[in-house]
Design goal:
Layout: H1 10-13, H2 23-38, E1 46-50, H3 56-61, E2 67-72, H4 75-84, E3 90-94, E4 107-113, H5 122-132, E5 133-144, H6 164-174, H7 187-193, E6 198-201, H8 202-208, H9 222-234, E7 241-247
């Protein structure tokens, strides 16, 4: 994997990070998956969100857990989160997801939602998540497939599939940016990235029963749900994104 510098100001160039639109729905799904994975332990769980950005989702998750810490490399976003989302069990700090200032085996759940593509070394990120999780702890891992037709940060077709040099030019030509930082992985490489965990696949569970996970927002029409179920059945490797619960088992 290509080593690259830190993406320190993502929120400043993606104003959607300051909007509540859709964040509550995603947080409800996240909480439902964590409750499925941790059961009654969720109410007292120590939760860490790596890549919390402006903290909007954290503010919705915190009432359901024991304690919640959000970490991000983006200083401006963390200042916003700290000033805006004040709850007794919720705190934010500037931190490096690849070198967490968190003791070994000290958290019950980690949230890693759409983060792996933003860090210089995703393998180090996952090693750190494994280190800080207590035995039996879980990581909510939401990840976009590189083969996703419409890239999810700039909403341009085929952007993540292109060679990096071409993606840079594509952004410039469309006026969406000057440099494409993100590095997505295909399904098989995502599996290798999280190989030290036991994967519990919630993508298929959510497709089977969206209402159970408050995920109806993902499928705006019955036809879209049928298409998604068909794609997951016949070509799961090409599915746009995945929600996995990663469990530390050692």
């Amino acid at each position: 994997m290509t080593q690259r510098g830190y993406q320190r100001d993502f929120a400043s160039t993606h104003q959607a990070m300051y909007s509540d639109d859709g964040r509550r729905a995603k947080a409800d799904t996240l909480v439902a998956v964590l409750r499925d994975g941790l059961g009654a332990r969720l109410a007292t769980a120590r939760v860490l969100n790596v890549g919390c950005s402006t903290g909007i989702m954290d503010s919705f998750v915190a009432p359901h857990v024991g304690s919640h810490v959000g970490i991000d490399i983006d200083e401006a976003a963390v200042r916003f989160a700290t000033a805006t989302h004040q709850q007794p069990n919720l705190s934010f700090r500037v931190g490096d997801a690849m070198a967490l200032d968190i003791p070994d085996a000290s958290v019950d759940a980690v949230i890693c939602s759409q983060v792996y593509e933003h860090v210089p070394d995703p393998k180090r990120l996952m090693d750190e998540i494994h280190r800080v999780l207590a035995p039996g702890g879980v990581c909510y891992f939401a990840a976009t497939n590189r083969l996703c037709i419409v890239e999810q940060h700039y909403f341009l077709p085929f952007l993540s599939i292109m060679p990096v040099w071409m993606a840079h030019r594509y952004l410039r030509l469309t006026g969406r940016g000057t440099h494409y930082y993100e590095r997505h992985l295909v399904y098989w490489n995502l599996r290798r990235l999280v190989a030290q965990f036991r994967i519990e696949d919630y993508t298929r569970k959510i497709l089977a029963a969206p209402a159970d996970y408050h995920a109806e927002y993902l499928f705006s029409t019955p036809a879209k749900l049928r298409i998604a179920r068909t794609l997951a059945r016949v070509a799961y490797w090409a599915f746009p994104g995945y929600i996995w619960l990663l469990r530390r088992v050692d």
